[in-house]
Design goal:
The chain is an alpha+beta fold and about 140 residues long. It has 2 helices and 7 strands; from the N terminus they run αββαβββββ. It is globular.
Length: about 140
């Protein structure tokens, strides 16, 4: 699978998981997704259990730290850190995507209507990041 296709799959899986979290918990707990260079697997993990009383920032930092540890042992091609973003009454899904070429933040504004349906808008791309970079080379 090409890197572009893997990126697309990581984003789709991240958005689907974020939507499930919103429906079940009304928010998104920071989590990670990643793809490998040597196969087509995409993995995901939330590290909240290892830091149950952590703040959002601590959870994001812990997620990045665990991704860096994983990157040292595995052949990662793509990483993503996913979390909720809020500003006033506006809510969004933040997906920080990173490859060895660089990192970008994609902000997906969303709304939840009366029947609990989630409407996700087109993403806004930003060079500002929500977390430190995983790839340190």
């Amino acid at each position: 699978m090409s890197e572009e296709k893997k990126l697309e799959q990581v984003i789709i899986l991240s958005l689907e998981t974020a939507q499930k979290m919103i429906k079940e918990h009304k928010t998104i707990t920071p989590f990670a997704a990643w793809a490998f260079t040597d196969n087509n697997d995409i993995k995901m993990s939330s590290y909240q259990e290892s830091l149950p009383d952590g703040s959002w920032q601590e959870l994001i930092e812990h997620t990045v730290k665990n991704m860096r540890r994983l990157e040292k042992d595995e052949k990662l091609q793509i990483t993503a850190v996913i979390t909720a973003l809020e500003s006033g009454n506006n809510t969004a899904i933040g997906i920080q995507i990173e490859t060895v070429a660089g990192a970008k933040l994609f902000i997906y504004p969303y709304s939840v209507n009366d029947s609990e349906n989630i409407s996700i808008d087109e993403p806004i791309q930003s060079d500002m990041l929500i977390a430190g970079k995983v790839f340190q080379h």
